[in-house]
Amino acid sequence: MNDDAVPRRAKRAHSTRARGERGPRDKLTRERIARLVAVVATGASWEAAARATGVGASTLRRWRADAVAAPAGSLLAELGEALERAEGEAEVALVAIVRAAAPQDWRAAVALLERRWPAQWSQRRQLVSADAAEEQAAVDELVARGPVAIAAELNAWVDRLAGRVDPPTPVAGRNGSGPSR
Hints:
Radius of gyration: 29 Å
Structural class: mainly alpha
Order of helices and strands: HHHHHHHHH
Distance between the termini: 87 Å
Largest sheet: none
């Protein structure tokens, strides 16, 4: 009988798991935990740690989620605790590197300040114009011209931001400077 003729239910009944054996889904071992921890301790992402240890990224995500409610002393609980410690150790080591670089390069200090205390140190950009009524009038004018004009204006801005064209000459009445019409 060929394999295609065997119903799915029968295939499952003869699977490795059905026979009580460890199958590919049971990859969690103390050795694998040690390898995962070693990779995570370097600061690698969860996906990189999974790839480096031969585990699927979704499997590692499932193990991490299951570790939260795992009984104490189980391999899953051990994995969760070990990965938490390794992630903390990686952070401490990387912060130490940035701190060591800060006396020679002020940008390292700023990067650390911005990330550690973003409310006090991150750059804030004000998105509200000083002359909101003027800005709204310009938007209304553009909308009245239609979608083709809007697309052309957006493309022009993208080109300017990418440095492909020079910025437009200011028009009088928009910001109070430049030639009059």
